[in-house]
Structures are given as C-alpha cells and as structure tokens.
Amino acid sequence: RLRAATAEHAAFHALLAPFSPAPSSPDLSAAPALLQTLKTRADAYVAQDQTAHTLHTRLDAQRAACASLAAQHVAATALLAEAALRRTAAQADLDSRVATRRARFGDRLVADAQREAELARVRARDLADSTHAAAETLHRAHASALQDHDRLTHALAARATEHQALAARLLAAATAAGFADAPALRAALLPPEEAATLAQRRQALASLHIALATRAATLAARRATFPPDAAPDAAQLPALEAGHTGHEAERATLEGRLGELRAALKNDDAQRLRQAAFADQLAAAHRDYVRWDRLRALIGSADGSLFARFAQGLTLQRLTVLANRHLAQLNPRYSIRRAADGEAEDLELEIIDHYQADVTRPMRSLSGGESFLASLALALGLSELASGRASIESLFIDEGFGSLDPDTLEVALSALENLQARGKTIGVISHVPAMRERIPAQIKITRETGGSSRITLAG
Predict the structure, then answer these.
(1) At the N or C end, where does the chain have fewer CB atoms within 10 A?
(2) What is the pTM of this model?
(3) Model confidence over 195-221: pLDDT tens digits?
C-alpha cells in the first residue's frame, strides 16, 4: 500500500508539473480540466484504497485458513502414525489368527467349517426341541394313560364280577336242565356228524310215512270198488288174511319205529333249542372275554409299558392327521401315516406318494427339500397337538431353508405367509438371500472384531 501510494503521489506531481504556474505569467485557462482530472484521480484512489482494504481482509482470512490447515496437517500426521501402529497390531493379530486357523482347520475353507458347525448346532437344537416336545407329550400321555389305567382297572373288575354272575346263571340253567355243570352241558351237545345223521333219518322217516299214507289211500280206494255184499273167495281168504296179518304186523312195526323216530326228533329239537340258547350265551360270553382279554393285554404289564405304547400310538395317529392338513398345502403329493397299518406296537412313520399310485415309502427316502416340508408339517401339527385348547400364536423356525430349491422355497414361504395371515407370528432364522428379500421386518446380527456382534433392526 505504501509503495502504491508513493507511486500515485509521484504520478500526481508528474501530472501537475505541466500546469504549474510560471512565476512570471500564471495561466488559469486549464484549471477546470485539471480539477476534473484531479477529481477522477481522487475517486480512483478511493476505489483502489477500498480494494486494497478488501484484499488485506482476504489475506488475513487466508492466513488464518493456512494456520488451521497446518494444525489439521499436524493432527492428521498424528492420526496417520496411530493408524500405522494399529495396522501393525492388526497385521500381527491377523497372522496369529491365520496360524491358529491353519493349526485347527488346515486347508479347509472357513465357510465349510462354519457351515458344518452351523449344521451341527441346528441338528443339536432340533434334537433338543424335538426331544423336549416329545417328553412333554409323553408326560401328558403318561398322565392320561394312568388315569385311563385306573378307570379301566375298575371297569375290568366290574366286568369280572358281571362275568362271574353270567357264569353262575349259565351253571344254574345247566343244572335246571339236568346237567351237573357246564362241561357236562358241552359234552351233551350232539356232534355235527351225529346231528346230520339224525336229520337224514328224520327225512327218511317222513318219506316213509308219506309212502304208507299213499299206500293206505290206494287200498281204501280199491276196497271201495268192491260191491258191499261181495264175499271173498273161499280159496283166497286164507291168503288174504295171511297177507293182512303180515301187513298189520309190518304196519305195527313201522308205527313203533315211527314213534321212536318221532321221540328222537323231538328230543333232537329240544336239544337243538337248548344248544342254540347255550351257544348264544357262550358267544356273548366269548365276545366279552375277547374284549376284556384285549384290554388285559394292553394294560396288563407290571410297568404299564404296553398301555403307554398304546397311548403313544393314539397320540401319533392324531399327530399324523394334523400334520397331513398342513402337508396338503405345502406339498399335496405326499401324506404321512403310521407304519404297519397303525398297529399299537409300531411307532414308525411312512410317507404315501400319491403321484406313484399311493405307494408307501419310508421317511428316509425323501429328498432334502421334501424332508424339510414333511418336518415343517409335523412341527405345525405338533404345535396344535401340544397346545390342546390353548392357541399357540408364535412359531420360530431355525434354518433348513438352504436345502430347498427355488420352487420348494416359494411353496414354503407361501405356507408361512398363509400362517401369518391367520394371525400367527412367524420367526425365521436363516441366511438365504431369498428369505431376506421376502421378509421386510428383520433383525440383523453383524459380526465385529474382538468377538462381539452388533444387532440392527430393518423394515
């Protein structure tokens, strides 16, 4: 500024030099032009002075900014040194972790080891959950079985008393009919062969009776043709009398035989009636015996294991019914049923393939995706079975979706969405990208350094 002012002052004096008045003859004709020039120069000086002031202000601001940048440079240099130290420590930690990993896993990929560990954890959790659910179900079934055991024991005692009363009535009826006891009654029953022989003899006797009646009618008709006053020929009279005597004797013999046969038939009819009545009583007693013997076989073991297995079979049958309702929506190709046609001593499950003429196959023959859908259907059915009259509104599924193909995954997601539409809260633990895209509300867990994790909410 000083140099600029000095230069401006010199230029001002150089400008005034031509117009300086001579000492001898002053000339004032150029004074107005000079004043105008001076005024212009003065305005230009003021403008330059303001510009210089503005530039000085900007220079001060730039100097302050340079000082700030210098301070920042010093801080950045310090941070860079600290980052270099941290990088060195991180590299040493990384080298240590790499050495530890190689010592533990060798050349295996981390993803493979994590996948195996995750699968082992999933299997252990599924096994623990299924074992706990099965234990709860078996505990309830055992309590119910104990109640049923007590009720059936009392009913069995009542039926035993009723059976004894029925046996006493049967013995009284046998004694009234002239038999010493029930075995004597059974011994008096005619064998089937003898009964058939008596029936044939009865039929033959009836035919003989019809033949005699026909012959008597024929003789009476022939006798009616003779004149009333006709006398027999004296020569034929002895022969006729002898023939008549023989016929009478034969007739008496046949009538005696007919009486015997009639008595035998009457006795046979009475025996048949008594046999039919006792056969009905024996059949009713046998049906009661079979039913109660079946119950004895189910609850007759000392530790109650037979009846417990029977109760478990009923529970498993109910579980298959509930599971098939969900499996029909997940994969209508298959149905689940108890193995060996639902016998009480078999608690295995089988799969029915409706696309292969309803052929029955073991559950282990299903593929990974099919096994997941069947397991999901069984889990949903078990939740309904375990809830009883209560309503389970929450369901959590841990993994298993990674083994599904895209079509099967779509079916499983649609089924879960249908459950959610019915008011249930569905929680899914998965790393499958398609699951993250379909489920808006998410809880994300991010692994960080130092063994810690960070939880974030999305959606």
Answers:
(1) C
(2) 0.37
(3) 778 778 878 878 877 887 887 787 777
